[in-house]
Write a structure and sequence with these properties.
The protein is an all-alpha fold and about 120 residues long. It contains five helices and no strands.
Length: about 120
């Protein structure tokens, strides 16, 4: 696994990166080359070029953070608390004879109790 803690960026880290992209947009708008932008912000020229293309296609709004990546959770806060209680009770409480949770079993519990499915 690339990120043992689950990966992703905090809101602060996303904001900081957004500010870098917007500062780079200032340079791009006054005619700086990809090489200059990359050097100034310590990124690859590929990143600088990606920012340039996004800026050209969608303006500064295209460089704004889109929020955390990944799929949104299909369970609300109360359902997550209920799922946590089920998991703490163990697989035997759900009818399985051994003591190990698997992703398939957890998925089955979520499907049965909350009607949420993944494909």
């Amino acid at each position: 696994m690339r990120y043992p803690d689950g990966g992703g960026l905090t809101a602060e880290e996303r904001h900081r990166r957004e500010q870098v992209r917007l500062a780079a947009a200032d340079l791009i708008e006054v005619g700086a080359s990809d090489r200059e932008v990359a050097r100034r912000f310590r990124v690859t020229r590929m990143s600088a070029n990606r920012w340039r293309r996004a800026l050209a296609a969608g303006g500064r709004q295209a460089l704004v953070s889109k929020g955390p990546g990944g799929a949104r959770c299909k369970l609300d806060a109360s359902q997550l608390r209920a799922l946590e209680a089920v998991l703490e009770a163990g697989p035997a409480a759900c009818g399985w004879s051994d003591l190990g949770w698997t992703l398939a079993r957890i998925g089955e519990v979520v499907r049965r109790r909350f009607g949420a499915e993944w494909h």
